[in-house]
Amino acid sequence: MLHYLHSTARLCTISSRLRHPNALPSSPHPRFILRFRTAYREKLQYLKDLGIKYTSTNPPSHETVDQILIIINYLKQSQGFCDSEIVKLASCCPTLFSSDLDPTDISPVFEFLTADLAASSEESRGLVLLCPHILFSDVEYCLRPTLIYLKNLGLKGLNLPTNLNAHLLNTKISKLEKKVKFLRNIGFGKEQAEKVCARLPAVFGYSIENNLMPKFEYLVWGMGRSIAELEEFPQYFGFSLRKRIVPRHLHLKQRGVRISLKRMLLSGDQKFYSKWK
């Protein structure tokens, strides 16, 4: 706890100095050189405290450090990120803090989140924290077309900072369309497939080979059920095949019981197995 408080205090102190460089007193030339070197060491320590790593044998140049600080200041002062959130960004997406990046490279994404998505500042920060790589997506060729596509499917509340929303927005349309195509290939009409995706948008994140197809095959061949039942309860795809679907189906089969997918899967284990002893 003491270490945490000390680090936090140091972050605040150094951050304040970096925001107000003119607050340092004037001095003759020799002392200016010393003060310049001290400031550089303070900057390095500040970056280290934020989780922005570098090797002691090959520290970044003064120019690199200053460029990284420009990004940090933009995120903090223009977008409202706090130090703890910068630490999280540095851990998840270290490339965000490099000498090759400029605020103008990522500002269009924040503008998109505010203008197109109608996300508040807090919601925008939340989405970025959940998927930092969204800052590297092209607004015109990825983010905006994807947003329009998802809205046309009927998805709402995309501005809310959830893990699903953040990664959906950062997914190219071509990848989303593969899931719709899969649903159509197994028997859904175009409108039906789109409704399934609107009701269960998590389906866009499921692997066809390792998740969707095995569950569909077990539905048809293992349980002898129809596509119509899947149409009524697309949430079926969200349950574990090995831990939930198969054991519950076999449990009911042994007792000669057949119920809807919804009744079979929605309740917790205690309620389900106490009801169907």
From TrEMBL:
Coiled coil stretches, renumbered: none
Q: Which GO terms describe its biological process?
A: DNA-templated transcription termination
The GO molecular function terms of this record are: nucleic acid binding
For this UniProt record, the keywords arranged alphabetically read as follows: Transcription, Transcription regulation, Transcription termination, Transit peptide
Query: Pfam families of this UniProt entry?
Result: mTERF (PF02536)
Q: Which family is this protein grouped under? A: Belongs to the mTERF family.
Report the protein name in the record.
Answer: Transcription termination factor MTEF1, chloroplastic
Q: Which organism is it from?
A: Nepenthes gracilis
